[in-house]
Write a sequence for this structure.
């Protein structure tokens, strides 16, 4: 099963990401709490038609409104929707035309062009660009058509709509968020239902991390929810005979105040047959009634095939009554007696009566270890909660997490010159970067020892073996030598070791040279002189194989090592020439 978890505060990713990875699960994260740890997401990758585009735009508009906001004049919403549609059409269609990847950064660029005046009459740069499109494709070209409809309105109205669009997209202007939406897509929604690389045995755990108590970022998760179910429903219907090979489950914590899929009350029923499910987590029934007023809340609960009641607050009377009603009544024997004052008078009656299986008061006093399960087609089940904290699985996950917890393998650097963030995944074997980015990393390498840059020509690139264990870098070797020097014995002990050199020759013949050359170096570095260490390092730097370096590793004296190394290098050069 693929699990998609709304992780408020990020504790679940931190505590269990490492364990899941150990078990072969692909771990991904959209992280709006620690954004430098987030994978990247490009909504445009999943827009296949105009319906997808309109659905995404509608979701953006809906997401920026508070859940309890009063409905106003639809004129403004329609105007904003029309303007956004023209921008999205422009970016989507022009990216295809220009052979590039469309992204939200392209939308921001278009919005900013609307504020750039090109003449005294107030013509904007975006107007000029739209005019060029009209001359090239005609006035009915979708972005031109919809933009013209907007611009035909009163200037003050248009100005107000532009301001509203800027306000709705303001969060995308945050540099850390720009990085997430810059164009690359790590999430790969189809793989959530089909398996990594199309292999159903390779499952995914996707953590959607949000800061606690801040609903500002609901917009981004809502966008993802919309595309998640649209894409997976399409795959199930068109490619998998109506059902995904992997069950996809969304754990929607903080459902009331947090992000939620659009039209979830009906979506719950639509996705079940396609091997998908949603687990909305709420505090009480009042939250559902607020989100889905009138009778819509009953549609929501009716589409939940399973309901688990874990308890609620002492004052949640509506919830207690609802659970009590769900349990229905039981039949009891009723006995009534009457006694008269006259001799021998009296009456005894036996009958059947109905009584709540559990009253609202009993529901409110349920022990914290108990729960009630409502399963479709089954009688209610009163059971004990299954606490995981003492299980072997939990202990193993805790051990793997350690003190620091799981870290998503993403490296992010800030390019001060261009005012943008650059992303590198540690797990990627090969990252394609521009010349600009290479220059940036060259400068960054001067202050960050974990970054190494190399330039090679096309022919040398063809001979690279990406499956070969890389040789340690010069900085790594220098660091290793410094660490060894700190641990070396004082001068008197070194002199003593020098006096014992004749015996050392015999001892070195017995050295264990298993493993790679770095293992050998670490194993016997304390018994090598600084000059001997330097000769071994030179051999590694010159590209000699582990076997060649091991040939002179046990020789005593740096001069003998140097001579042997030079002979091996000459032989290697002759072999290459031949």
């Amino acid at each position: 099963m693929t699990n998609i978890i709304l992780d408020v505060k990020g504790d679940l990713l931190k505590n269990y990401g490492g364990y899941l990875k150990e078990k072969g699960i692909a771990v991904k994260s959209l992280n709006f709490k620690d954004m430098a740890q987030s994978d990247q997401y490009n909504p445009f990758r999943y827009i296949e038609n105009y319906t997808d585009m309109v659905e995404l735009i509608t979701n953006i508009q809906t997401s920026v409104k508070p859940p309890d906001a009063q409905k106003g004049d639809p004129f403004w919403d329609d105007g904003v929707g029309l303007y956004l549609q023209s921008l999205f059409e422009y970016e989507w269609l022009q990216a295809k035309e220009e052979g590039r990847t469309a992204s939200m950064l392209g939308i921001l660029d278009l919005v900013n062009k609307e504020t750039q005046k090109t003449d005294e009459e107030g013509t904007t740069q975006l107007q000029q660009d739209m005019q060029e499109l009209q001359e090239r494709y005609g006035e009915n070209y979708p972005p031109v058509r919809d933009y013209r409809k907007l611009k035909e309105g009163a200037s003050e109205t248009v100005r107000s709509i532009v301001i509203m669009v800027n306000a709705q997209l303001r969060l995308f202007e945050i540099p850390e968020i720009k990085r997430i939406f810059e164009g690359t897509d790590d999430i790969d929604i189809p793989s959530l239902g089909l398996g990594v690389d199309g292999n159903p045995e390779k499952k995914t755990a996707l953590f959607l991390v949000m800061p606690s108590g801040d609903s500002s970022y609901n917009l981004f998760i809502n966008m993802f929810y919309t595309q998640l179910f649209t894409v997976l429903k399409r795959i199930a219907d068109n490619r998998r005979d109506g059902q995904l090979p992997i069950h996809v489950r969304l754990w929607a914590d903080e459902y009331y105040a947090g992000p939620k899929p659009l039209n979830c009350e009906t979506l719950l029923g639509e996705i079940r047959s396609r091997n998908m499910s949603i687990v909305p987590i709420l505090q009480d029934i009042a939250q559902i009634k607020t989100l889905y007023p009138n009778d819509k809340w009953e549609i929501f609960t009716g589409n939940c095939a399973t309901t688990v009641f874990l308890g609620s607050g002492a004052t949640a009377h509506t919830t207690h009554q609802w659970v009590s009603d769900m349990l229905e009544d039981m039949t009891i024997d009723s006995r009534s007696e009457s006694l008269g004052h006259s001799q021998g008078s009296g009456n005894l009656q036996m009958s059947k009566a109905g009584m709540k299986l559990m009253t609202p008061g009993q529901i409110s006093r349920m022990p914290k270890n108990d729960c009630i399960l409502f399963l479709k087609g089954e009688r209610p089940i009163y059971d004990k909660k299954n606490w995981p904290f003492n299980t072997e699985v939990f202990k193993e996950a805790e051990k793997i997490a350690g003190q620091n917890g799981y870290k998503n393998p993403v490296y992010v650097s800030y390019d001060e010159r261009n005012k943008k963030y650059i992303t590198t995944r540690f797990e990627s074997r090969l990252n394609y970067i521009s010349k600009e980015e290479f220059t940036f990393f060259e400068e960054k390498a001067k202050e960050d020892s974990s970054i190494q840059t190399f330039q090679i020509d096309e022919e040398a690139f063809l001979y690279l073996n990406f499956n070969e264990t890389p040789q340690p870098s010069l900085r790594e070797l220098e660091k290793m030598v410094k660490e060894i020097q700190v641990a070396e014995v004082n001068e008197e002990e070194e002199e003593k070791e020098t006096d014992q050199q004749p015996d050392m020759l015999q001892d070195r013949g017995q050295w264990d040279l298993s493993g790679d050359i770095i293992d050998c170096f670490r194993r016997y570095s304390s018994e090598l002189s600084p000059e001997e260490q330097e000769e071994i390092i030179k051999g590694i730097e010159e590209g000699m194989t582990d076997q060649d370096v091991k040939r002179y590793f046990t020789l005593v004296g740096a001069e003998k090592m140097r001579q042997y190394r030079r002979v091996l290098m000459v032989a290697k050069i002759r072999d290459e020439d031949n």
Q: What stands out?
A: The first helix runs from residue 11 to 22. The radius of gyration is 34 Å. Residues 501-506 have pLDDT under 50 and may be disordered. The longest strand covers residues 329-339.
